[in-house]
TrEMBL record:
The keyword Flavoprotein applies. One of its GO terms (biological process) is ubiquinone biosynthetic process. One of its GO terms (molecular function) is oxidoreductase activity, acting on paired donors, with incorporation or reduction of molecular oxygen, NAD(P)H as one donor, and incorporation of one atom of oxygen. GO terms for cellular component: mitochondrion. It holds the Pfam family FAD_binding_3. This is FAD-binding domain-containing protein. Residues 30-409 form the FAD-binding domain. It comes from Physcomitrium patens (Spreading-leaved earth moss). InterPro entries: FAD-bd (IPR002938), FAD/NAD-bd_sf (IPR036188), RIFMO-like (IPR050641).
Length: 708
């Protein structure tokens, strides 16, 4: 780990400190990360793995215990897989999949059940499309694991950081994490950022000004930094307000585990309450109940532990149940993306909820944020290490904003689909909103507060009566029609979905640090046939797509290697080196691509590793003439070449690329460029342009024309 030293001012005004910025000899802090939520912590770990110095601050002194997000999608699990084995730990610690694969629709948790949907298909749990799978693991349990991974990388967590003795040291520890430290102001110019950090220590308050090259604001949905730098959110604000009640009940956990089909989410509709219960862990009896919240007629203070306890018993449908209410919070659902992802000087960069806020339907919030961090880490690393110019950082917004917008639209569509079920049962959520808006109107507000609440509750109670057990009885013909309509919606996959393979693994950057193809290959651009609202993932090596997963054996520079362990093509990309990977076939074309890549990389000082992809059964092929000649030709570039063997037939077919072509992969496992053709005299030039596109500073001026 490179040593770092920071510019630190404790007494002068921030403005003066900032004007002094360039004059000071100690280099500024390369990256300040504000916010140690899942996004800030992920970025901190990824930067540590690259050996890029950073500092992470969070205003919280303790880790939050209130559960929030809980669904980790496949791509997030792939990213975590390369963070000190985090995925393996999540896989062993998460509840068994049979306890969370379903959504259950019911009138109370104790029954009766109106319908269930199993969201996992066999292919979701095999290693066919990914070396890992989706997981159900709560954010408040994930955060301690992230801290532990950071600590394993040598990062230390401090609650009382003594700036005077430790901070100004010439070689402070790598990437410290400071808890209880708030970023209270930010000023940037084209050279860097001055961030003021404040911490209360006992009765005194410590304030320091830090000069930084870059600040990443991963400071959550309310992002104070986003406001400081004047970035606004676009889209629909305040779609719904919710009360989130965290409670424990072992008895309830056991009750639900004893049912034939336990679930992750329980949608409860009954005359007393409508709620969504998240079963964070049935064995541990840990739950969250999400209840619609209508301020100002309802106030957070009204939801005391006793009131929430009562609501939960109504949700369960059993009065004699032991329930312990831990915390009650409110939260607001938005569907918004920031108008810009950086400040005007491109020194303050937003990530995670700070830059996009989605409805939780589909669980894209945390996942999109982790993937922002993954996109940003190698770019920041490349710029700070001097491999690329700052132009590379501009591609962060170009690539991530369309993904944020697409995931917002998907979450909104999924949220609306979730409303189809209560609507089928005669509960129209839009009607609830209209009633609430009417009461909030000028006329409604003239009513005394208590009367407003009574009117609101009275109207909602009439609505909820639609789902009373008497109303939903078998003898009520209207109810029978409604329940069968609801079951049709569930069966046809038109309700809230959990799995989005096409968007999870199949999201693709259309422009950015890549060379798009002029001619889109129609066979690879086809859209998967929809199954309800779920689209399947289709592997693609179109530039911008995630490299498809395929089982391989890596033989490094010598082969056959002693280890025959099967791993993934994703493992060809390093988590500690910021370099490019060129995948070529084991043939004469592969050798020509290798020679061209080595020459171009040398002229640009770009780090490239070439992977020669051997067909399966390497040992039996060793004596064959083409393989021997490949081995001989590439032996000159031994330290740049890795030999990988397909564990099964079909890598090139999966990629839609002939084995005489080439695939260039970025440090975040996304394809930067590919050739569907044999190498020719312009191959070195194509590669040169592709390398320069990914690491812009290192190129001589190139045309921006697209490759055919
Ligand atoms: C009650 C609740 C329930 C939720 N439920 C779900 C759900 O069911 N499903 C889902 O997908 N998503 C859910 N979410 C959203 C999900 O939790 C977020 O998408 C996720 O936390 C985003 O991570 P983040 O790291 O971007 O931000 P956060 O997790 O919000 O972390 C931001 C961090 O920044 C710190 N911070 C803020 N300002 C400063 C400052 N000035 N200086 C220093 N530190 C600062 C904060 O203390 C915090 O630790 C929920 C959110 C809430 C609040």
């Amino acid at each position: 780990m490179r040593s770092l030293c920071f510019f630190l001012r404790r007494t002068a005004t921030q403005r003066r400190a900032f004007s002094d910025f360039a004059a000071h000899s100690p280099p500024p802090l390369p990256v300040l990360i504000v916010g140690a939520g899942p996004v800030g912590l992920t970025l901190s770990i990824l930067l540590s793995q690259y050996g890029v110095p950073s500092l992470l601050v969070d205003k919280r002194k303790r880790l939050p215990e209130h559960p929030q997000a809980h669904f980790l999608n496949n791509r997030t699990m792939e990213i975590f897989r390369k963070m000190e084995g985090l995925t393996a730990e999540i896989e062993t610690k998460q509840p068994p999949v049979d306890q969370w694969r379903r959504f259950v629709y019911c009138t109370t948790l104790a029954g009766p059940v109106l319908g269930t949907v199993d969201h996992l298909r066999p292919e979701d749990l095999t290693s066919k499309r990914s070396p890992t799978a989706v997981a159900h693991f709560s954010q408040h349990h994930l955060l301690p694991l992230l801290y532990a991974k950071a600590q394993r990388l040598g990062q230390t967590v401090h609650k009382n950081y003594d700036f005077s003795s430790q901070w100004a040291s010439i070689t402070p520890e790598p990437a410290p994490i400071l808890m209880g430290y708030e970023c209270v102001s930010i000023m940037s110019n084209s050279k860097g950022v001055n961030a003021r950090i404040s911490a209360s220590q006992g009765v005194t308050r410590q304030v320091v000004d830090l000069a930084c090259q870059y600040v990443v604001a991963a400071d959550g949905a309310g992002s104070p930094i986003r406001k400081m730098i004047g970035i606004t959110m676009e889209g629909e604000a305040e779609m719904q307000k919710l009360i989130s009640v965290h409670f424990f009940s072992k008895e309830l956990g056991q009750l639900l585990l004893s049912t034939p089909e336990p679930g992750m989410l329980y949608f409860v509709f009954n005359p007393k309450v409508i709620a969504v219960v998240v079963a964070h862990n049935l064995e541990a009896g840990e739950f969250v109940a999400q209840i619609p919240f209508y301020p100002p007629q309802q106030r957070l203070e009204d939801f005391t532990s006793e009131v929430c306890h009562d609501i939960i018993l109504e949700v369960v449908g059993k009065r004699d149940l032991a329930v312990e209410v831990k915390t009650v919070k409110q939260w607001v659902m938005h569907a918004q993306v920031a108008d810009r992802f950086t400040d005007k000087h491109k020194r303050v960069i937003l990530a995670g909820d700070a830059v996009h806020r989605f409805p939780p339907a589909g669980g894209f919030g945390l996942n999109t944020g982790v993937q922002d961090a993954h996109n940003l880490a190698w770019k920041l690393g490349a710029v700070i290490k001097g491999y690329a110019s700052e132009a590379l950082l501009a591609t962060y917004e170009v690539e991530r904003k369309p993904i944020a917008k697409a995931n917002t639209a998907l979450s909104v569509a999924n949220f609306k689909a979730a409303l189809a079920v209560p609507a089928a049962l005669g509960l129209h959520p839009s009607a609830a909103r209209v009633v609430h808006e009417a009461i909030n109107s000028r006329v409604g507000m003239l009513l005394p507060k208590k009367l407003q609440s009574a009117v609101l509750e009275g109207i909602f109670a009439v609505g909820r009566a639609q789902v009373s057990s008497a109303f939903l009885s078998d003898f009520n013909p209207i109810a029978a029609v409604r329940v069968s309509e609801m079951q049709r919606i569930l069966k046809e996959g038109h309700s809230l979905q959990l799995q989005f393979p096409a968007e999870d693994l199949g999201f693709r950057y259309r422009e950015g640090a890549l060379i798009p193809e002029v001619k889109q290959s129609p066979s690879r651009e086809r859209v998967a046939a929809p199954m309800g609202r779920r689209l399947e993932y289709l592997p693609s090596t179109q530039p911008g797509a995630r490299l498809p997963h395929f089982p391989i054996i890596i033989h490094q520079h010598t082969f056959p290697s002693s280890s025959n362990a099967t791993c993934s093509t994703l493992d060809l990309v390093s988590e500690s080196e910021i370099d490019l990977v060129l995948i070529v076939g084991c043939n004469n074309s592969g050798c020509t691509w290798t020679e061209a890549a080595v020459t171009s990389a040398k002229s640009l000082s770009v780090k490239v590793r070439v992977v020669i992809m051997w067909p399966p059964g390497l040992e039996t092929k060793m004596g064959e003439s083409e393989e021997l000649s490949v081995q001989r030709r590439v032996s000159a570039f031994k330290d740049r070449v890795v030999h990988a063997e397909q564990a099964d037939q079909g890598w090139w077919e999966l990629c839609g690329v002939p084995d005489v072509g080439a695939i260039l992969v970025r440090p975040d496992e996304h394809v930067a460029w590919r050739s569907l053709n044999l190498p020719d005299r312009s191959s070195a030039e194509h590669l040169h342009r592709a390398f320069a596109e990914v690491f812009p500073a290192l190129a001589s001026p190139t045309s921006t024309q697209q490759c055919a």
